[in-house]
Design goal:
The chain is α+β, with helices and mostly antiparallel strands and 155 residues long. The protein is 39% helix and 13% strand. The protein contains seven helices and five strands, in the order E-E-E-E-H-H-H-E-H-H-H-H. It has a three-stranded antiparallel beta sheet with strand order 2-3-4, with helices on one face. Strands 1-5 form a two-stranded antiparallel sheet. Helix 5 packs across helix 6.
Length: 155
């Protein structure tokens, strides 16, 4: 997949050490990449969901041509084989900016339900536009209604 605005998922750690970069969240699930020059670390830190691939290319090559755009795309493509990257900002969301900030944790959670995390806005729209009926507001129903409201269910 070609990422327009790649983003390292929030729960994934990028740790540079000894001319290597470790990407992952546990020892068993992390991958290591040789990084003699530090360019890979720089590229990964620029994968913040704000920068486009073109932006990353310009920042990395601000003084000299250390890496090609094709190499950046290939690195991002290799990392996308693991659940470490997601696409950010591709969909034009019908959700107002105020609600996007409010539901930012939900969006992060919903991004885990598809490989590249690019359907999270649609998932949230589906939740917001859904109608739910809860029968019984006792010891179980009351917290469920609260949780549904926090998730974004309006009706």
């Amino acid at each position: 997949m070609y990422f327009k605005r790649p983003k390292i998922r929030k729960h994934i750690l990028v740790i540079p050490y000894n001319n290597k970069v470790s990407i992952g969240n546990t020892y068993q699930s992390a991958i290591e990449i040789e990084d003699e020059t530090g360019i890979i670390k720089e590229i990964l830190f620029l994968c913040d969901g704000i920068n486009t691939v073109d932006d990353i290319f310009r920042v990395v090559n601000h003084n000299d041509n250390r890496v090609t755009k094709k190499e950046i795309v290939e690195l991002i493509d290799q990392i996308s084989n693991y659940p470490y990257l997601m696409e950010e900002g591709v969909e034009l969301s019908e959700i107002p900016e105020k609600l996007l900030k409010r539901y930012s944790r939900n969006l992060n959670f919903l991004s885990n339900f598809d490989k590249w995390g690019d359907k999270k806005h649609q998932y949230l729209c589906n939740i917001i536009n859904s109608t739910v009926i809860v029968l019984g507001l006792g010891g179980v129903g009351s917290p469920i209604v609260y949780d549904l409201a926090a998730l974004g269910v309006k009706k």
